[in-house]
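The instructor's notes for this session suggest beginning with a concrete chain rather than abstract definitions. Hand out the sequence below and ask the class to guess, before any prediction is shown, which regions might be ordered.
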Amino acid sequence: MKTRYLYLVYFIMSITDIVTINLSYLIANDFQTLKSGNAVIQVIVANYLWLIAALYFGLYSRKFVHSLKQVYSLTAKSFVLFTLLFFPYVLLSDSGKVAVDFLLLFYFIMMAGIIVNRLLYTMGENVLKKYFRITKPVAVIGSNDMALRLAGFFKDSDNHFAFEGFLHQEDTSYLDATGNVLPSIVEQIQSASGSGIKDIYVSLSADRMKEFQLLQFEAEKHCMRLKLVPDTSNSVANYLKVSYMGDFAVLSHRNEPLEEIENRFKKRVFDIIFSSLVIIFILSWLYPIIGLIIKLQSPGPILFKQLRSGKNNQPFVCYKFRSMKMHSGFKQATKDDDRITKIGKFLRKTSLDELPQFFNVFLGDMSTVGPRPHVLTMTKEYSQIINQYMVRHFLKSGITGWAQVKGYRGETKDPSLMQKRVEHDIWYLENWSMWLDFKIVFMTALQVIKGDENAY
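After discussion, reveal the predicted structure:
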């Protein structure tokens, strides 16, 4: 395989990086002499830490060949991780201003040296491509959408392939009436073998696997590999997310970032920290004030407690500041509802009535951001008439959510409004990130300051 030249370049790049680290250390150490006998140990540790950072990001990986853009990106990531690992080690070994000055100088020299290495790497690869056949020659059978995309990928010079063309440019059966490979394709495969092509790619739908087997037999006669790229156009697989469970590829209907334990952990840590801050610095003094006003305006408890549907449709007791006069039964609040007290109207308009739900967040029943929890009767009713309504219960309920900051809150007489709310909740489920949570919290804060016409 001709790409052994590229592997050689990668090997040289790893060696020059190590040499650069050692030279940078020696130069920096000469300018800023450290008052310790740890120099030899430190430079050995530096080498190991660089290899750990580079291997972590796959900078020297042999499993696949990186494009030039990837090489520069992975180098930058490796350098950042290396600096974060090496910095505390040197400070512990040689504390004081001298150690800091040494590190800054060392990082600067090392960064400059690695940049020079990458420029030489780029020049070396360009020379190899120009004067030697270091790219891997490939061909494609067929001309469906996936085959055309493959050809475009191979034509990209950064991918280290040499696209030699199509062996057959018709998206029809590759077999003749007798069930054998078309003679024209057989001739093209033989010709491709003579020109040095060793890998052929074909894109087929699931119902044409028999063609792949016969094409493979024909290719192997000429010591060529036939590789299959499934054609998922016009297929339900095109809309599925692929994940892996051991050696098994698992298809699911949607992407759910919060199915990953590390994402749930990050979200939970944020919830605990944020709810603790609200409870300590806001509710600690605001709760008695609001509670006293509620008591003065209407007899009854300070908190309104209600069973609501949470994650996996499990009910939990949701807390709110009581904003209505005591009454029996459930009826969704409406505009100019006479049950709402004066303080209750203010609390609802500013969303301050939701503050006690930070206790729910701290206890783990809710999250700061997520689909708003509904009472059990609403869940039962809307699950029968709203498409994908129960999907929103894959997540913990939230004090605020994507639907709320987009204006879908309050009374929902029209089922289409609830449908829109559900669509926004599902969008949040499929596109969750910590940055999205921060954005929603910020947008909620702005709504609280400006007021929301749908809050009543």
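Then share the key points. DSSP finds 14 helices and ten strands in the chain. Residues 261-450 form one domain.
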